[in-house]
Amino acid sequence: MIGYVTLGTNDYDRAGKFYDALFSVIDVSRLWSSEGRAGWGPAHNQPSLCIVPAFDGKAASVGNGVMVALIMKSTDDVDAMHAKAMELGAKDEGKPGPRGEHGFYGGYFRDPDGNKLTAYVRGS
Predict the structure, then answer these.
(1) Among positive and negative, which fits the CA dihedral 57, 107, 93, 60?
(2) Which of 42, 65, 70, 113 is the most exposed place for a label (fewest CB within 10 A)?
(3) Of residues 57, 18, 21, 51, the one with CA closest to residue 36
(4) Could you tell me whether strands 2-8 and 29-34 are parallel, antiparallel, or unpaired per DSSP bridges?
(5) In total, how many domains does the chain have?
(6) How far apart are CA 76 and CA 84, in angstroms?
(7) CB of 53 within 8 A of CB of 65?
(8) pTM
(9) pLDDT tens per residue, range 7-66
């Protein structure tokens, strides 16, 4: 069910070097890197760990920049998950739609406690 996890960073170069070296121990390399963000995993269709700056522009800290990503089977499922979250009182953090490269389609929300989640599906 978990597709990827993001961890906030205030020093992209340092974090990138750290995770490049750390994941080399298990023969996992960087899958992508773009605009101060990067992700590691065995393949694009497998769970991965990503580093990102905090979305709100504040300094990343434990929890700020952290998000749980829930992999869906289709864009219809992404839409349905986001709609259900809104119905249940979640806060919209980004309506469902295409994002970036590789056919990524996601919708973002915060649960009633403020935890950030995304429902997503990735194309190619």
Answers:
(1) negative
(2) 113
(3) 51
(4) unpaired
(5) 1
(6) 12
(7) yes
(8) 0.71
(9) 999 999 999 999 999 898 888 999 999 999 999 999 999 999 999 999 899 998 877 888
User: First vs last Cα of the chain: how many Å apart?
Assistant: 19
What's the domain range around 110? 2-122
| Strand intervals (E) in 26-103 | 29-34, 37-41, 48-52, 67-71, 91-98
Residue type at 64 in one-letter notation: N
Give the separation between CA 64 and CA 6, rounded to whole angstroms: 10
CATH number at residue 39: 3.10.180.10
Distance CA 39, CA 6 (A): 8
Q: Where residue 90 falls among pLDDT bands split at 50, 70, 90?
A: very high
Distances (CA, A) of 72 to 8, 10, 36, 66, 107: 23, 30, 26, 19, 11
